[in-house]
């Protein structure tokens, strides 16, 4: 799911066969699995307390894997830990309950050994994903307005991460949280695997989004299809 123009062995040592995703042609779907999110206030508001989101940035997970500091997560996790582990407002840890994501405004969504599925867990907890994956396309990125519910930070700008987040106003955060709630069903295969959250209906889920993306490409065969984002933006 990468579309880099500079697909070199030096820059991406795990891969040397060229891009595996063609933007506006291929369709990248979220993984067909349902994460266990019973402790998410966003998914189960009646049985989980709604916390004030007093943590600016949250991440819990492996920093390096088996000593592979150079290659794991393209060093993103390691660089974020190194720079911000002791920064006020940042909660970065090796182990922690997933429910802590419900206390944060932003959650890191990096890659791991592969391209990672952290994005989908973060979304289920109502936490605005911070995507630091240069040249890596996310699920539905051609079809959903990611700029309205996520933050993309270039790897070269990791040292500025605290400044980037601090510059986002409370009003913008509230708007992004509303947009995130709107798109959350589109990352879950509810109509196939069953409804997993109290407010899920099975409509506008990942399957319906896939059908939308296919129609968009069918109707513009042989040309770059216009984004379906405007239709979804209207729903916000």
TL;DR?
The chain is an alpha/beta fold and 236 residues long.
Q: How would you describe this structure to a colleague?
A:
It is globular and about 50 Å long. Mean pLDDT is 80; it is low at 2-9. It is built from seven helices and five strands, in the order E-H-E-E-H-E-E-H-H-H-H-H. By secondary structure, it is α/β, with parallel strands linked by helices. Helix 2 (118-124) links the parallel strand 3 (104-109) and strand 4 (128-131). The chain is 25% helix and 9% strand. The chain has a five-stranded parallel β-sheet.
Shape: globular
Please report the total strand number as a whole number.
5
End-to-end distance:
27 Å
The largest pleated sheet is described as: 5 strands, parallel
Q: Average pLDDT across residues?
A: 80
The residue ranges in which pLDDT falls below 50 over 5 or more consecutive positions are 2-9
State which percent range the strand residues make up: 5-15%
Strand order across the largest sheet: 2-1-3-4-5
- SSE order, one letter for each helix or strand: EHEEHEEHHHHH
Structural class: alpha/beta
Rg, alpha carbons? 18 Å
Helix content: 25-40%
Set out the fold topology.
Layout: E1 55-60, H1 76-84, E2 90-93, E3 104-109, H2 118-124, E4 128-131, E5 151-152, H3 161-166, H4 170-183, H5 190-193, H6 206-218, H7 229-235
Parallel strand pairs: 1-2, 1-3, 3-4, 4-5
């Amino acid at each position: 799911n990468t579309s880099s123009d500079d697909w070199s062995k030096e820059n991406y040592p795990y891969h040397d066969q060229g891009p595996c995703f063609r933007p506006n042609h291929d369709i990248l779907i979220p993984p067909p699995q349902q994460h266990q999110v019973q402790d998410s206030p966003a998914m189960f508001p009646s049985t989980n307390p709604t916390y004030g989101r007093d943590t600016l940035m949250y991440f819990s997970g492996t920093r390096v894997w088996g000593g592979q500091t150079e290659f794991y997560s393209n060093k993103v996790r390691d660089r974020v830990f190194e720079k911000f582990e002791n920064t006020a407002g940042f909660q970065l840890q090796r182990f922690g309950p997933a429910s802590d994501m419900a206390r944060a405004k932003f959650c890191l969504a990096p890659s791991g050994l592969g391209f990672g599925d952290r994005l989908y867990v973060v979304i289920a907890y109502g936490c605005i994903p911070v995507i630091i994956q240069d040249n890596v396309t996310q699920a539905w990125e051609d079809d959903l307005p990611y700029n309205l519910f996520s933050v993309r930070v270039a790897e070269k700008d990791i040292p500025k991460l605290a400044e980037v987040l601090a510059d986002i106003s409370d009003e913008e955060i509230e708007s992004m949280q509303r947009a995130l709630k709107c798109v959350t069903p589109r990352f879950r295969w509810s109509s196939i695997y069953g409804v997993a959250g109290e407010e899920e209906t099975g409509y506008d889920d990942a399957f319906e989004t896939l059908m939308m993306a296919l129609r968009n490409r069918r109707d513009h065969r042989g040309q770059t299809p216009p984004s379906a984002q405007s239709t979804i933006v209207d729903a916000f």
